[in-house]
Amino acid sequence: MSFQSTIPPPVLPPLDPATSRILIVGAGVFGLSTAYHLQEDGFKDITILDKADELPALDAASTDINKVVRSIYADSFYTRLARDAIARWKEPMWEGCYHESSVLLIGRALTDKSYENDFAEGARVTLLPNAEKIRSAFPDSLHRIPEHERPLQHRLLGDFSNYTGYINLDGGWVEATRSVKILLGIVIARGAKVESGKEVLTLLNSNADGSGYTCGAMCVDGSMYCADQVILAAGSWTASSFPGLELDQRCLASGQSLAFLQLTPEESERYRKSPVVMDFRTGFYVLPPNKDNVIKTGLHAAGHTHMVTPSAFRFSFANATLVPRKISTPRTVLSHPEGSDGLRDCLRVVYPDLAEKPWAGTRMCWYTDSPDSDWVIGQFPGDPGLFLATSGSGHGFKFLPNVGRIVVDILRGRADATTEAKFAVDRGLSEALNTERVDKYPEELVPEELCGPEDMLP
Ligand SMILES: Cc1cc2nc3c(=O)[nH]c(=O)nc-3n(C[C@H](O)[C@H](O)[C@H](O)COP(=O)(O)OP(=O)(O)OC[C@H]3O[C@@H](n4cnc5c(N)ncnc54)[C@H](O)[C@@H]3O)c2cc1C
């Protein structure tokens, strides 16, 4: 899509914190962080709508036992922003959700740009130039084990031959759903209206023929909300929920595999002090056990699309002249309760013994991908009433404390030109490839290849 129009966009008065009505669609990381930072700027009239009956939404990308917090980025913009987020995660408002376990990156050359960026920003990083050094980054409990468990010795840790890496002590993981709940509670306590069970069907336009600007939203139940500014933060549903915006590629829903292992308390103690491990050869990552002795593993890769034609109902609201087409649409735990296998071989590289355990659960969780992995934050071209804050591209969660600051700065015209251009909805993307991922193009989901009952605990 070109987003080009010959008609100049209407000009609206600047937003006024005291009087402007803000309507946010979506109560995930992007919606809530935006609401919080709008409140920091003094905005009083904020309404957040979410389609889920209960919040945080069970199938939102933001809802999860935990997420990785790393400043390991090849793009120094994110390194700096992640280090700012890490400092904020340590503030009392997050009630200890952040756990600084350290992050171990393996599978990249030692001259890696992310190491340079971390080092330049003052992160506590150490290069690990061979297998022995990598193994030494794991706790003693995985090296020194009691006599009677000796046969385990060779299976607890991978041998990491032909791997190099580095460890960053300034990073770890965060309890995801708990921190979302905390922020939800804070924005409500500061006066935001949050309404669940409100699926937005279409945006309202100031002109009946759709030639004006967005001035509100109508929900599936027929309720209408008027606003001076609508902010779409609908995550992986953005493209399929609002087909008329033609965001199919800039906000591509891609399904990513997660699998969970249930450890006994004794097993858990052995892995408790492990770093988060990220294998950049495969996109695999594994977190230390949480308080319930559950280990989460996942793949940060191209993932899967799930191409579906949205209902004619949605298209009719979007634009009468639009030809219905297939758009990648989340297929979530609520509609299809199974996940994907294929993580076992990757887990074997790090923790061979754990790779033999059955999964206690699997999940397909949906990224909202832009082609260059940069978020989509900015005014919708030609429509000053509509603003987008989305396309987390699989790395947005760690920025819950501060991504809303960027959203609000761009919204209020305070961001510098580089930041504005980096996230602009209509930035040039024709040559872009997802810079963070191992395999660059998602494949269509094949449900028959998903994890079956034999992979699961009885
Ligand atoms: C498997 C997986 C692992 C990840 N791991 C990490 C990690 O380790 N570290 C990290 O930093 N990031 C990680 N991420 C990325 C991070 O989770 C996302 O970038 C972030 O949560 C996206 O937030 P969001 O607000 O855009 O979307 P969501 O959290 O999905 O929120 C969107 C909300 O919009 C609502 N909604 C949708 N359509 C409508 C509608 N029409 N009307 C009303 N409401 C609507 C939904 O119900 C939902 O609540 C991961 C993502 C996934 C899927």
Provide structural commentary:
With 458 residues, the chain is an alpha/beta fold. 48% of the residues are buried. The strands form 6 sheets. An 8-stranded mixed beta sheet has the order 6-7-5-15-16-17-14-21, sandwiched between helices. The protein starts with 20 loop residues before the first strand and ends in a 14-residue tail after the last strand. A hairpin with an 8-residue loop joins β10 and β11 (214-219). α1 (29-40) runs parallel beside α6. Mean pLDDT is 90; it is low at 334-340. It is globular and about 75 Å long. The protein has one domain (21-455): FAD/NAD(P)-binding domain (3-Layer(bba) Sandwich). It is built from 12 helices and 24 strands. The structure holds flavin-adenine dinucleotide.
Number of helices, where a helix is a run of at least 4 consecutive DSSP H or I residues: 12
Instruction: Return the average pLDDT rounded to an integer.
Output: 90
Number of domains: 1
Q: CA-to-CA gap between the ends?
A: 48 Å
Strand residue percentage: 15-25%
Proportion of residues in helical segments: 10-25%
At CATH level 2, the architecture is: 3-Layer(bba) Sandwich
CATH superfamily: FAD/NAD(P)-binding domain
CATH topology: the name is: FAD/NAD(P)-binding domain
General shape: globular
Lateral strand order in the biggest sheet: 6-7-5-15-16-17-14-21
Low-confidence stretches: 334-340
